[in-house]
């Protein structure tokens, strides 16, 4: 199975290259970097501090999709939509791990998934997907007397907030409670905000240091708090999960999928 990686100059892209190169069942079929990147034209192995592997990093996404059976994209929102369009035109499966994708772009990605198989996953770690299942269950059991607040912390270089995972957990909480996240969420608080709105799902984003990714969902009641957390200490969990999604996706027909589908969770 030939795997192409998009965003090879990034924190995740580098780990994804290593993951593919270290898996004897996989073949690295190409890697994409941003136009103007000083990694363009460099050997993919050398780019991650290893011996040459004979695969040159390209700036042409068409080549990446032509040369691979499945492509994994951890880059930036606009770029991921562009890649979904190319994937759809070529009928190539695509795993997108990019977060901060605006709603209208997600709609467009879902449309492209009518022509090819696409996994869109704000978090590819098994632990986080399990956390989301737990959050949905707890939210279904506890009533509005328990206020839901989602707190996340990431490294100082993260550019989007709240994290895609925080929004995914918010969605799980909203589903469990039977409410709409868009109309229930409070994304920031500052100044004289007034008392907390009953039934709101609140978000808080912390940024600092090298934190890989911490997420906690608080169910805060009178006299007790239930806190469900996932703390990531090694970014490789995301790379491993993304490659698991790519393996799973290769045999799928066109459609829009999530990590729940990859892990075989059903809706019953
Ligand atoms: N789903 C998950 O489990 C996870 C998701 N993420 C998400 O993945 C994304 C990437 O994260 P991270 O690796 O930390 O970020 P980085 O900023 O380190 O990497 C992003 C990379 O994408 C490159 N890039 C931008 N545009 C293009 C393009 N058109 N073609 C090819 N490459 C491009 C950038 O190039 P350049 O360096 O030249 O600017 C950069 O190297 C983020 O949205 C993040 O939130 C992160 C971790 C886990
Ligand atoms: O940018 C990151 O680092 C991460 N981004 C994803 C997100 O926004 O949820 C996943 C993980 O938390 C790491």
Overview of this protein structure:
- The chain has helices spanning 11-21, 44-47, 61-67, 77-90, 103-112, 126-141, 164-177, 181-184, 236-249, 259-263; strands spanning 2-6, 27-32, 57-58, 70-73, 94-96, 117-120, 147-154, 185-186, 201-207, 213-220, 225-232, 255-257.
- It has 268 residues and is α/β, with parallel strands linked by helices.
- It has two domains: 2-120 and 235-263, NAD(P)-binding Rossmann-like Domain (Rossmann fold); 126-232, Dihydrodipicolinate Reductase, domain 2 (2-Layer Sandwich).
- The strands form two sheets. The protein has a seven-stranded parallel β-sheet with strand order 3-2-1-4-5-6-12, sandwiched between helices.
- Helix 3 packs across helix 4 and helix 6 runs parallel beside helix 7.
- The longest helix has 16 residues, at 126-141.
- The chain is elongated.
- Residues 99, 122-123, 154, 158, 163-165, 213 line the site of the ligand O=C(O)C1=N[C@H](C(=O)O)C[C@H](O)C1.
- Residues 6-7, 9-13, 32-34, 37, 74-76, 79, 97-100, 121-124, 160, 238 line the site of NADPH dihydro-nicotinamide-adenine-dinucleotide phosphate.
For the structure shown, list the relevant keywords.
2 domains, Rossmann fold, alpha/beta, amino-acid biosynthesis, 268 residues, five-stranded mixed sheet, NADP binding, elongated, DHDPR_bac, diaminopimelate biosynthesis, cytoplasm, binds ligand LZUJQKHR
Summarize the structure.
By secondary structure, this protein is of the alpha/beta class. It has helices spanning 11-21, 44-47, 61-67, 77-90, 103-112, 126-141, 164-177, 181-184, 236-249, 259-263, and strands at residues 2-6, 27-32, 57-58, 70-73, 94-96, 117-120, 147-154, 185-186, 201-207, 213-220, 225-232, 255-257.
């Amino acid at each position: 199975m030939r795997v192409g990686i998009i965003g090879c100059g990034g924190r995740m892209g580098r780990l994804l290259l290593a993951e593919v190169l270290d898996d004897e069942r996989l073949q690295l079929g190409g890697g994409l970097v941003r136009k103007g990147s000083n990694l363009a034209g460099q050997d993919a192995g050398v780019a991650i501090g290893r011996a040459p592997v004979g695969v040159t990093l390209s700036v042409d996404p068409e080549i990446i999709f032509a040369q691979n059976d499945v492509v994994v994209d951890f880059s930036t929102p606009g770029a991921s939509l562009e890649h979904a369009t190319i994937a759809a035109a070529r009928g190539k499966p695509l795993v997108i791990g990019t977060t901060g994708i605006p709603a209208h772009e997600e709609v467009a990605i879902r449309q492209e998934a009518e022509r090819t198989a696409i996994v869109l996953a704000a978090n590819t770690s098994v632990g986080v997907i399990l956390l989301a299942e737990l959050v949905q269950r707890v939210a279904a059991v506890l009533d509005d007397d328990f206020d839901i607040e989602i707190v996340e912390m990431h490294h100082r270089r993260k550019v989007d907030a709240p994290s895609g995972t925080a929004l995914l957990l918010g969605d799980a909480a909203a589903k469990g409670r039977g409410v709409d996240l868009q109309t229930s969420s409070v994304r920031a608080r500052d100044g004289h905000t007034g008392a907390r709105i009953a039934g709101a799902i609140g978000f808080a984003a912390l940024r600092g240091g090298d934190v890989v990714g911490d997420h906690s969902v608080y169910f805060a009641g009178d006299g007790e708090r239930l806190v469900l957390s996932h703390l990531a200490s090694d970014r490789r969990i995301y790379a491993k999960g993304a490659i698991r999604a790519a393996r799973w996706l290769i045999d799928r027909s066109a459609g829009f999928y999530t990590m729940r589908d990859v892990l075989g969770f059903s809706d019953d």
